[in-house]
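FIELD: query
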Amino acid sequence: MTTATQVSANDPSSRPPGPRQYFPGQIALAFRRDVLGFLTRMFREHGDMVYFRGGRQQFFILNHPDAVRDVLVTRDDCFIKGPALQRAKKTLGDGLLTSEGDLHRRQRRLAQPSFHPQRVARYGSVMAGIARSAADRWREGQQVDIHQEMMAITLRIVAKTLFDADVEADVDAIGGSVDTSVKMFTRAMSPWGPLLNWLPLPSNHRFLRAQKHLFDTIDRFVVEHRAAGVDKGDLLSTLLKAHDAEQLADPMGDAADRDKRLRQELYTIFTAGHETTANALAFTLYLLAKNPQVEQHMLEELGEVLGSNLPTVDDVERLPYARMVLAESMRLYPPAWAIGRQATRDVEIAGRVLPEGAVILTSQWVIHRDPRWYPEPEKFDPQRWTADARSQRPRWSYFPFGGGSRQCIGESFAWMEAILVLAAILPKWKIELTDNKPLDLRPTITLRPKEGIPVRLRAR
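FIELD: result
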């Protein structure tokens, strides 16, 4: 029988291996300068559990699927969101992504019916129609940023399916506001973020303008729903019904607080609901442009299943290779690139007792590229996702949507949306990269291309 080792900040012999710090702030500086490179290097140099300190804070990076399972599922009750997302409440509010405990359970219970597979299936024709409509506006030889194009498509889809709203006239302005808000998350990764938020910086003024625009947009959705006076069966109708029921049950309660909470819930779903899928689609189109044999195989499947027709929900299960392509894309470029947690009490993980207050990091970017589970990890190979290949790997060697009680509520929505968008676009257009430069990445709250992905459109 083995006994778990109690990690002590004052006992070097009890700590897992980790980087040395030769001057204060050295590790924090390396982390902020290149977070993906830092996490990769820590795994290569120190293995499956890495320890370091930042000031008084103890950090552990966990790089093994079994540890991921324990943090996200088995010992989930011992953790809350990490400090970055706690600080991000300034920018994201107290929605599904940042809330904890009873509030999070309530928010998830209310939103869950809108993401039930049967409800999601009703959105399919809207998803495919919006994607094809966007593709119909493209022109032969046109140069575009395919990331921005995917952002616009998924924004229209989320607005129409979950809020029954048309944002066509305002899509560029809304997209710009979302972009500004998402980039502010980089600050939440810094312990000095809360201080910077109070300073009269131009970035703060830009963020406040963007946030107000998004709040005004959401308020418009609410006003339009209330004016219609009918339950449209979408997410907004569901949450409004719950909000009104709360008001009736407690008429003396704080109405302003309830309205604020509703707005924050809608804000989180509206912004996060299209950002992650847009990134996944953009990276997938980038990888297909670099791998013409994979693209050709996918086109053959689309031709056999769809002919010249627009894809439907019933076609999604008949496009297994498209799903494999998307899965492999999210392995290499996971929209959610890392997960942070903070221990609320001493907890045993991988044979060590991590102390209360410790910050835990586990990274999809690192684990999805671990050669133990993915030989030639930098290679784009959809065949990794055959049933036989999947069965050879640990379950938690792949977790693009997180897991456990905090698993992405919109996972089935995102899979269907991404497959339908690809199936609506690829038969009409070949995406050509305009240069062969390595992709520069920006890891904010999601992983996105730093300078976009410039491409040239070629009609098939």
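FIELD: remark
Residues 255-290 form the longest helix (36 residues).
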